[in-house]
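Study this pair:
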Amino acid sequence: MTTHPRSAPHEYSLAVRVYYQDTDAGGVVYHSRYLDFMERARYEWLRALGFDLGRLTRDFNIVFVIRSATLEFLRPARLDDLLQVTARVAEAGRSRVVIAQRILRDHAALVEGTVNAVCVNLDNWKPVGIPAAIRHAFEG
């Protein structure tokens, strides 16, 4: 996997190769694997911004939990495809962030979706404000 910052200041892109384990007998990617690819992109995006999961828990005592996800499947990905999985902030509130994501092959959209994540405190699992450092990083 390689990361490629995109020209848009708020969009991150991660290259993901489709392996045999990602596909069915016909060589088409399982629908649930797209969520895995999107999660990888969000995780690596946070890391590129300077926040890995360990730092979030250690420095801020928070995690981002997924409240909802909406996907639209446009075209199938297949075995050995090299995909670009993008992530960008579409909307941010005090304790939640909506992340727009796309999965592309050769600049053609295969999957488009949004993920609604909520920042929660690890002690009580209740929503808390997104720390200023992370909010600032999201804003570019």
Remarks:
- DSSP finds three helices and six strands in the chain.
- The domain at 2-139 is CATH 3.10.129.10 (Thiol Ester Dehydrase; Chain A).
